[in-house]
Design a protein that fits this description.
globular; about 30% helix; Aminopeptidase; 4 helices; binds coenzyme A
């Protein structure tokens, strides 16, 4: 089994691989320019998890004042269930703490049981819902709003 060990900050050199992972993991993936702009912007934290220097997953946060929002987190399918998402969240917490951030926010599709389970395990709690926020092929589904304080 591959070890998921190194988490570090993404750079522009990761962009092509980032796009491949994004396209594999999301039904409505972000565009190249959206992802590229996250890598360049102030107040964005972009982390990657690698094995033998190959990028296997990532997490993107934006932050302002004392709050940060988890915008994206994804791992290639074959590397899920091995603690990689926890490693990304832990490193993000450590870096965000040094910026004075004490609250994390996120929105997640109500059908995304793996992500919701990860967030609950990490300590996120539900704050509310946006009714019908996300499109589905046959309708719409709610967004669950979650937060976690004392990052
Ligand atoms: C969200 C994601 C990063 C989590 O990574 P992961 O490696 O699967 O995380 P974990 O192994 O910690 O699994 C999280 C939990 O979901 C559970 N789980 C995993 N797949 C599941 C499934 N298909 N159905 C139900 N539960 C599932 C795990 O058992 C675990 O439960 P636990 O907290 O009770 O132990 C990963 O699933 C992913 O990349 N998904 C696609 C992108 C995405 O939806 N991102 C989130 C929205 S931005």
């Amino acid at each position: 089994m591959t070890d998921l060990q190194s988490v570090d900050n993404l750079t522009e050199a990761d962009l092509d691989r980032l796009i491949d992972i994004e396209n594999e993991c999301f039904t409505s993936p972000w565009s190249r320019s959206q992802l590229a702009s996250c890598l360049n912007k102030q107040r964005y934290l972009c982390l990657g998890i690698r094995s033998n220097q190959t990028l296997l997953g990532f997490a993107i946060f934006s932050w302002l004042l004392d709050e940060a929002e988890l915008l994206q987190i994804a791992l290639l399918k074959e590397f899920r269930g091995r603690g990689g998402a926890d490693q990304l969240l832990l490193e993000a917490s450590a870096q965000l703490q040094t910026l004075g951030i004490n609250r994390l926010l996120l929105e997640v599709r109500e059908s995304n049981v793996a992500a919701i389970s990860l967030y609950r395990r990490y300590g996120f709690t539900e704050d509310g819902r946006r009714k019908g926020y996300y499109p589905l092929s046959n309708g719409r589904e709610d967004a669950i709003l979650m937060s976690y304080s004392k990052v």
